[in-house]
Input
Amino acid sequence: MAREGASLPSPKLEYPLVRPARIAVLGLTVEQESGIHTFSEWNSAVLNKYRPCALAGWLPDLIQAGRLRESGHLAACQLSHPLLVFSTPEQGPLDEDAHSTLWRWFGLPVYEQIRTAEGRLVAVECETRNGFHLAGEDAANHDGPACDCGHGRRWVPAVTGSSVTAATPESGRPLTTAAGD
Ligand SMILES: [Zn+2]
Output
């Protein structure tokens, strides 16, 4: 269901660190800010031309970019800043394999953001890598433990494999296992 031209504003990127000069966002239209360029369709040629310092995007896009990098097709990209990976609540946090594969291809740290399929930010990975912080209105309605980092409430996404238990923070409903029996 394409939502191009919908009245909802584009979500913000929310890069977790000081932003480098050029970030390429793959596959998600985010709010236009200086130094951030959205590529809803992309290939190695357009990325090489833009010369991003950092990449952000859904895992399949970053896997594609990683393969291109490994094969030398992203030679002109001066990637130097952490990758920003988007996952839906159902996809959940990246597993060890995804982390190690991305590391092999890029040699860069990875920060993860949980977003709905439309891109709305649900949670951002804490800089201490010890869980996530809920974002936006979810954070205001959440009374989980304070995060060790001193900012925000700590939230640990549900283990993947069950979309039922994966993140219903906005509803406040108890996480029951309603499906499967
Ligand atoms: Zn934290």
